[in-house]
Amino acid sequence: PSVPSRHGAGKAEDTFKTSPFHLDLWFYFTLQNWVLDFGRPIAMIILPLEWFPLNKPSAGDYFHMAYNVITPFLLLKLIERSPKTLPRSMVYVSIITFVMGASIHLVGDSVNHRLIFSGYQHHLSVRENPIIRNLKPETLIDSFELLYYYDEYLGHSMW
Questions:
Q1: What contacts 117, CB < 8 A, 6 or more positions away?
Q2: Whether the Cβ atoms of residue 102 and residue 23 lie closer than 8 Å to each other
Q3: What is the pTM of this model?
Q4: What is the biggest distance separating any 2 CA atoms in the chain, rounded to whole angstroms?
Q5: Nearby residues of 115 by Cβ (< 8 Å), 6 or more positions away
């Protein structure tokens, strides 16, 4: 069967029925998700904390950064192989939104990881945490609440 050009010169319905499932790309998505997402905490447990001071990126942060770089390329490759085309601007906005959300999440996770090593109690709200409650000036508490909002609400929604 003939494959339509990138801009839809053939019948979309016919090619959709005969188009192959892109097992290779889905395999790469799965592999990179398992290695980079599930491997993050494992790498942070295995590698000594002394190698990654709290004011520098941790092993988990590097895994997260790789995820933020690799995933958009895999998404673009998957979209390129799609029998149905989307407007370029829609593809670009979607990829940019994903990268921004994943990056916001990276920063939030990174700071949260360091706070836990400093005694932050994850089960309490930002304002109820003993180490946060004693911050001076008190406006710093608002900054940590903003960081939490960016990570948990805005970053996750975009990601």
A1: 49, 54
A2: no
A3: 0.70
A4: 69
A5: 131
